[in-house]
Design brief:
By secondary structure, this protein is mainly alpha-helical. The protein is built from eleven helices and no strands.
């Protein structure tokens, strides 16, 4: 009885140990599986990204959409329609900049690289007359001529500032905002970004930020002048359209009166053609006069509705022109 009890006890103890060991193995495998799933989910792209809630935010979506529309609008912006070529004022400006640059080169003490500084200023000045019709090309030429000087100054550690007259260089970013298309403005901005990055190596960060602000301000002023001119032209065109429409309505009333008179006189002539030839002849004369006046006022209407200059008027063909119209050398109707 004691042996059986011991055997049972040993069997119970063995089963307890086996259950304990099995529980340890199961727990260890569960932890391993959980840790591997966690590691795989951690390495899954975007699974634990803290940026996902921001991307799903309506404010973020609205801002990105607004930025995309702004970029597309700038990129598709056409050139200013009122750009004109070189003129007398451009020649005066070039002469003035040249004289001032020469005087500054001769009289300024301690000027670093006087001849290259003078050449850079003169090249920029001589390109100014074409800044309206070719804003990107002239800007790229001016920046391309002065950029090597900045690179050499950075490499040699020379504090090169150029001439003070080179302030005329600000007309290039102004021209990009005032005259250039969207694509040209982006290209010009890239050219200015290049020269700003080059000069940032040998000057304080405050000067670099100040240069960015000045260039951006010049572009903004040019864009403001540009859209003010566009708004002014649109307002003038709107006023002219209203005036033309009002004149056309008035002339329409007058033409309607002439047509009514023609209809009445035609009815009179048809009524008295057998009994009163004199009345019929008078009615036909009135019809002829009213028809001529009606045709003239119709021409005035056409001229008033044209966008540009007045319509070109020419005499109408008559009976005497039949023979000429039959000639093959004459243009057909």
């Amino acid at each position: 009885m004691g042996v059986s009890v011991v055997g049972v006890s040993e069997g119970a103890a063995g089963s307890s140990v086996e259950r304990f060991m099995i529980s340890i193995v199961v727990t260890h495998r569960a932890r391993h599986i959980g840790s591997s799933d966690t590691s795989r989910s951690a390495h899954r792209p975007g699974a634990l990204s803290s940026f996902r809630p921001i991307r799903r935010s309506p404010i973020f979506s609205r801002l990105t959409g607004m930025l995309a529309r702004t970029i597309r609008s700038i990129w598709s912006e056409p050139s200013a329609p009122d750009a004109r070529g070189p003129g007398v004022r451009d020649a005066v400006l070039v002469a003035l900049v040249t004289v001032i640059a020469l005087i500054e080169t001769v009289l300024r003490d301690g000027l670093v690289w006087p001849i290259p500084s003078l050449l850079a200023t003169l090249v920029s000045a001589f390109l100014l007359p074409w800044r309206r019709v070719h804003p990107l090309m002239t800007t790229a030429a001016a920046v391309g001529f002065s950029s090597p000087l900045h690179v050499i100054a950075v490499i040699q550690g020379v504090d090169w500032e150029g001439l003070g007259t080179a302030v005329v260089f600000l007309l290039w970013p102004y021209s990009l905002g005032r005259w250039a298309s969207g694509r040209e403005a982006v290209g010009g901005a890239g050219a200015f970004a290049m020269i700003i990055v080059i000069t940032a190596f040998d000057q304080p960060i405050g000067d670099t930020i100040g240069g960015v602000v000045v260039v951006s301000l010049a572009v903004a002023i040019g864009a403001g002048v540009r859209y003010r001119a566009i708004s002014g032209r649109q307002q003038v065109d709107s006023i002219r359209s209203r005036e033309r429409a009002e004149l056309a309505r008035e002339l329409h009333d007058s033409v309607a009166h002439h047509v009514s008179t023609i209809a009445v006189q035609a009815h009179v002539g048809r009524t008295f053609v057998q009994t009163d030839p004199a009345a019929t002849a008078e009615a036909l004369a009135v019809i002829s006069d009213q028809a001529s006046q009606c045709l003239e006022e119709m021409r005035v209407i056409v001229s008033a509705l044209r966008e540009g200059d007045a319509a070109e008027l020419a005499p109408q063909y008559g009976i005497r022109d039949i023979e000429a119209l039959a000639d093959t050398n004459m243009p057909g109707p």
